[in-house]
Design a protein that fits this description.
Shape: globular
Structural class: alpha/beta
Distance between the termini: 51 Å
Largest sheet: 8 strands, mixed
Number of strands: 18
Strand content: 15-25%
Helix content: 25-40%
Number of helices: 16
CATH architecture of the domain at 7-186 and 429-453: 3-Layer(bba) Sandwich
CATH topology of the domain at 7-186 and 429-453: FAD/NAD(P)-binding domain
CATH class of the domain at 7-186 and 429-453: Alpha Beta
Amino acid sequence: MPAPSTLAALEADARRDLDLIAHPRMEWLQPKTSGGAPVLDVLIVGGGQCGVVAGFALMRDKVRNILVIDREPYGREGPWQTYARMHNLRSWKDQSGPDLGVPSLTYQAWHEAQFGTASWDTLRYIPKELWADYLLWLRRVVGVPVRNGVAAGRIDPARTDDGLPCLRVETSAGPMLARKVVLATGQEGAGFWWMPDFVTALPRHLRAHSADPIDFARLRGKAVAVLGAGASAFDNAAMALEAGAAEVHLFCRRAEPMVVQPYRWLTFAGFLRHIHEMPDAWRWRFMAHVLGLREGFPPDTYARVLRFPQFSMHVGRPWTGARVGEDGRAVLSTARGEVTADFLICGTGVRMDATRVPELAGCAHNIASWADRYTPPDAEADARLGAFPYLGADYAFEERVAGETPWIRDIHLFGIGTTMSFGPAGASINAMGIAVPRLAAGVTRGLFAAELPRYFESLRAYDVAQVELDTSRLAAE
């Protein structure tokens, strides 16, 4: 069958596909209120790809009383138009995930409808801007409700008017109530963007994290130093070079730069579907190995910086300190002497620390971490990994001390913080087709379990009604 040649035709196909696979169609949730105010069944914080696709999965399960909020304006959700500074996605073009198994909702279908099959055939990697456009199209076609420009704050426990637990979420648009909250806030969901303290202590005009807004045009003719040898560090070095920086120095603590991309090894159904079911010792062993390697930079990313003669890479040379020099520039201490630069960029990723997350201010002290639940052999010990949250099978937070904050079982994390518990589940396009339905199933399980008495009474009432209907039919005959 030929591919649809217009978006309108593709959208018609998609809506028909969704209708064909809509079983079971029965609505099963009842509206709730708290103090007379409406209660959402699910509030999803974060309108990037994970938040929107989580909403899509829940809607397919007839959980329709949901809302996705995102602090950014329309089109700026997630990293693609902000701090993702690569040219293309790093995964193969035929990846799927946000479509949740619906062929007419795949990126390929969207691309072919927009640009033709010949364009798809010659495409190597997906440009990140096109991926961002595709996600907005998907969001519109499947009808996920999103409110942009709304930032979430502290989450606290509450109750519905009929006695069920729910959550109160402070937001910039006023308090919102929901029976379940999904934190789909990507890298920051359970931590913060990390830089060495001695860099953070410098004036802001001298330094930035790779996730910060950076005016690269201001770096023209300047000397730039970049810390880190992962893909994002190289992307930011490339941006500075392309903006006309006079020199860019990239510093790597390793004696040899990392070129292996271990997340590509993880992309098979056995691992993605079942690693969270394995014993803690094996989960730790696998993910400690992967995260110990860190993600290497792709060849295309390396080629992007090598085009510039003013680029230098310094291996085995970590930063050990920093200060402001007499000329107002940054002076770095390194393992092999001092270096002066006009601007510093740290491609140093995130650190897990729930106390740094505004939404978790009321419960961070009692969120169980891997260090609370598992002690690895000395050879595998890593305090950084021990700080990751130890999540339940439904992606919900677990209590460090049982009974202190039981309501956190209704907060589900879906971002980079899931990595130690689930592998690359909440931070990988390739894992999405397996991870998102599992998240949705965990949320619906909780919604169903909370009202078992009501569902049983509904069943009994159905039995009575059915008997009365059958009796009246027999009498009529």
